[in-house]
């Protein structure tokens, strides 16, 4: 018996030692891969760094530093992908200040301002922290609260951990300040950063833009000429276009030609030049001067997209069709992760060439949305196309594609609400209120609108009457619109006195904001003078929905 137990103990110890050895070996391999990734980052070898970081993550899926490296690398090409990594890191470390701060900055870059503000609201410690300052300043800047952002960046650069990038962010704002002392300080800091290898180009850019903002064009020209004399880069070229387009048309045209000639083998940079020209109404110039670009560079998908956009803007439909479909002797090829733009531009060309009818456009647009998926920057470009082409159904459909995304939907919902309010579209506004409540169940304004619209549309009177009742009984959720909805639901059931009791909880100002329903309740209870007064207030409103106008018209007719 003893020998048997001894053997079992030894076997158990052996298994534990083996498991520990495997764990140690796995951890060592993960750390070795991480060391390789960090070394590759130092030597500016992004592909090597990415492979090593992914290998480290395969061995240890909670390797924080590997995740950070992949997020940092993603941020150089895609704000959306960086945000996904930062979100993953935050989910694993919800109370970590570093995770919160870097997530906030990434969210702002990707357009998720609301999500960033929500995350910063969970900040765990004191706010006198450079990480908090960076995140809060990024959010303030995105919300165009420049004074708040400047104060936060100024606080950030006082910390010993401040980096040149922090100084740049402060100085860039300060240099545009209306306060002469702040502006002088900002310009001084920017001058000092010009030679910094990390932020030098951006500091030069900020100095020139500051001079342009002050309309000191000769200073801007002098600084730009000095920079350009050291050689043309993607950064100083685009800035040169910004400056010379305003002060020297001849030099502007020369710079466009020089840019295409210098970067004729770089399709991405040439695509950026075309994109700039498109945004500034110079698409004809883009198409003409881009003839210098090498055939291989023209196959770059970013070049194709920008060039296709230019062809669309100047109405060269046949060339656009050939670019996006493949004309005689041209081989079709996908545009990779921006193939949704190829399909959109192809559809536009087919429509203008009378190759496509409205049903074809609908089908093709659904293909665009499928290709874009939840890539919100791509979806917003599709919305810009639809607006430019006056494709209202497609614009609306794409806004809904963004509104249905789990994050980054705020702007799309606001645009949809504005769209339906402009149309007086009750069904559309109901859908917006419904989606808002799915995302924010405690949104009182959306709740009130949801209840009222459900009753007006007659979708399911009992359901919305009960919804209004529950919300009205909770005084914290009783908004004027919710009270009006509940009173209207009682009126529909013939409970006119109960409806009047509900409205008695509202102030006179609130009653006037719900004048139509206050009038209906008063009329039902025989208070004709009060009803007539409220109906006059309602009739003066310009934002009544069709269903509300019908109610008002019937009520006025019956009172006569």
Written overview of the protein:
The protein is an all-alpha fold and 560 residues long. The longest helix is centred in the first third of the chain and has 41 residues.
Provide a short characterization of the protein structure.
With 560 residues, the protein is mostly helical.
Going by helix content, strand content and strand pairing, the class is: mainly alpha
Number of strands: 0
Count of separate DSSP helical elements: 33
Main beta sheet, described?
none
Name the quaternary structure. Answer: single chain
Which properties best describe this structure?
560 residues; mainly alpha; 33 helices; 0% strand
Itemize the secondary structure elements and their pairings:
Blueprint (H helix, E strand, L loop, with lengths): L1 H41 L3 H14 L4 H12 L3 H14 L4 H13 L3 H8 L9 H13 L3 H11 L7 H11 L5 H14 L6 H14 L3 H12 L5 H14 L1 H14 L4 H13 L3 H7 L5 H4 L2 H13 L3 H10 L12 H14 L5 H15 L3 H13 L3 H12 L6 H14 L2 H14 L4 H14 L3 H13 L6 H13 L3 H8 L4 H6 L1 H10 L3 H12 L6 H14 L1
């Amino acid at each position: 018996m003893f020998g048997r137990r001894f053997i079992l103990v030894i076997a158990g110890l052996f298994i534990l030692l083996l498991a520990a050895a495997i764990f140690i070996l796995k951890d060592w391999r993960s750390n070795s891969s991480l060391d390789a990734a960090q070394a590759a980052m130092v030597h500016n070898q992004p592909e090597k760094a990415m492979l090593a970081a992914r290998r480290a993550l395969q061995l240890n899926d909670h390797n924080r530093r590997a995740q950070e490296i992949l997020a940092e690398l993603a941020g150089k090409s895609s704000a959306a992908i960086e945000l996904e990594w930062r979100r993953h890191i935050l989910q694993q470390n919800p109370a970590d200040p570093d995770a919160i701060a870097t997530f906030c900055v990434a969210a702002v870059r990707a357009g998720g301002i609301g999500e960033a503000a929500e995350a910063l609201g969970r900040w765990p410690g004191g706010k006198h922290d450079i990480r908090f300052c960076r995140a809060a300043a990024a959010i303030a800047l995105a919300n165009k609260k420049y004074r708040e952002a400047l104060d936060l960046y100024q606080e950030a650069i006082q910390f010993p951990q401040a980096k040149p990038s922090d100084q740049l962010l402060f100085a860039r704002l300060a240099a545009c300040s209306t306060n002469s002392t702040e502006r002088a300080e900002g310009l001084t800091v920017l001058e000092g950063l010009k030679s910094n290898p990390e932020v030098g180009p951006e500091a030069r850019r900020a100095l020139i833009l500051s001079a342009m903002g002050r309309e000191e064009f000769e200073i801007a020209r002098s600084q730009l000429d000095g920079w350009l004399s050291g050689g043309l880069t993607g950064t100083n070229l685009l800035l040169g276009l910004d400056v010379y387009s305003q002060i020297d048309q001849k030099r502007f045209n020369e710079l466009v030609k020089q840019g295409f000639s210098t970067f004729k083998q770089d399709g991405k940079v040439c695509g950026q030049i075309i994109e700039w020209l498109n945004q500034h109404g110079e698409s004809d110039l883009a198409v003409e001067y881009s003839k210098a670009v090498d055939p291989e560079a023209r196959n770059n998908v970013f070049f194709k997209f920008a060039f296709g956009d230019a062809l669309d803007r100047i109405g060269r439909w046949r060339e656009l069709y050939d670019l996006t479909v493949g004309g005689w002797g041209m081989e079709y090829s996908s545009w990779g992760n921006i193939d949704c733009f190829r399909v959109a531009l192809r559809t536009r060309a087919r429509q203008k060439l009378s190759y496509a009818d409205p049903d074809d456009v609908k089908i093709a647009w659904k293909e665009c949305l499928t290709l874009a998926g939840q890539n919100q920057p791509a979806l917003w470009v599709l919305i810009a196309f639809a607006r430019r082409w006056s494709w209202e159904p497609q614009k609306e459909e794409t806004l809904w594609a963004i509104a249905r995304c789990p994050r980054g939907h705020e702007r799309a919902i606001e645009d949809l609400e504005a769209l339906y309010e402009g149309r007086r579209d009750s069904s559309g506004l109901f859908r917006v209120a419904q989606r808002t409540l799915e995302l924010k169940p405690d949104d009182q304004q959306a709740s009130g609108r949801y209840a009222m619209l459900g009753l007006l549309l007659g979708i399911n009177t009992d359901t919305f009457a009960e919804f209004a009742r529950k919300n009205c009984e909770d005084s914290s959720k009783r908004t004027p619109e919710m009270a009006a909805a509940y009173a209207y639901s009682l009126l529909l059931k013939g409970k006119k006195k109960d409806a009047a009791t509900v409205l008695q909880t509202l102030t006179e100002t609130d009653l006037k904001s719900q004048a139509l329903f206050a009038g209906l309740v008063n009329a039902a209870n025989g208070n004709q003078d009060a009803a007539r007064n409220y109906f006059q207030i309602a009739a003066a409103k310009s934002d009544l929905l069709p269903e509300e106008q019908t109610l008002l018209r019937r009520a006025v007719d019956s009172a006569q």
